[in-house]
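S.,

Sequence below, as promised.
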Amino acid sequence: MPDTTAPLTKKDFKSDQEVRWCPGCGDYAVLNSVQGIMATLGIPRHQICFVSGIGCSSRFPYYMNTYGFHSIHGRAPAVATGIKTANPELSVWMVTGDGDGLSIGGNHMAHILRRNVDLKILLFNNEIYGLTKGQYSPTSPVGLKTKSTPMGSVDRPFDPLSFALGCGATFVARTIDSHLKHMERVLLAAAHHKGTAFVEIYQNCVIFNDACFEAFAEKGVRDEKTIDLRPGQPMVFGKELDKGLKIVGWEPVIVPAAEADIWKSDTHSPGPAFVMSQLHLDPAMPRPIGILRDVRAPIFEEAVHDQIRAAKAKRGEGTLEQLIYSGETWTV
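The prediction came back faster than expected:
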């Protein structure tokens, strides 16, 4: 429950550890935003846990003055599920990257999303392996030349949002590390969502994939090249908000914002969300950021504890000895 006796500040969530990412890394901005929004949630630090896997992003728990668990490569979803199921009162946040979360951890990611565990997932996407020094990742674009693809990648990349939607995630959103106010708004919406909240964060790797999002994320072009999806609001964009999206047949097209049938952002229907997640395939279209999906569904750990209560009501508390000797046992 929120602790109203001692209001926390952003500084309270800064640990005593030296933050060690490359100078200019987008991770600093994400950390700053997360520490800021945590102070507004009214949750005491001992009821918060950050979980990570392996990668640059996975240093995150060390820099949060909360409980934390630096787990192993790709298995953060399993650890986070166990923590939240064991203690549903905790606010659990999982921090991962495009390599950790969608390569070796892809299977675990799929299952935490479909189960709808009540926790928050921040997936830092820089379209590269940073910690292991610049190999291509599951989100790297076709043709990207890296240390492991010197002639250019031939793999079709994952789209994290399409992946999350396909797994049945109940909250799916995207933001950009350099778009600070937008990132804070999206993170707050995720924090207040009941169920698994999946947030992809475009995060720049200044060493191995610098400026990979500059064509649409750079401040001078962002208004024209991105479209901010706000639930129930018309899909308009441009510096003067003079452009909009609507559906002609089954295809989105750009039209003047003054047209009457501009498409409104619908976070409840899976169809529009998936169309938005694929919009980047057309280079003429703006890149969607904001909230694509926000629905309610049964919560995994609540169902688990309902079963436990039902079993206790029917059979009693039981003991470890009774459990060991129950069912099919034999004496040697």
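The CA atoms of residues 126 and 224 lie 22 Å apart.

Coffee later?
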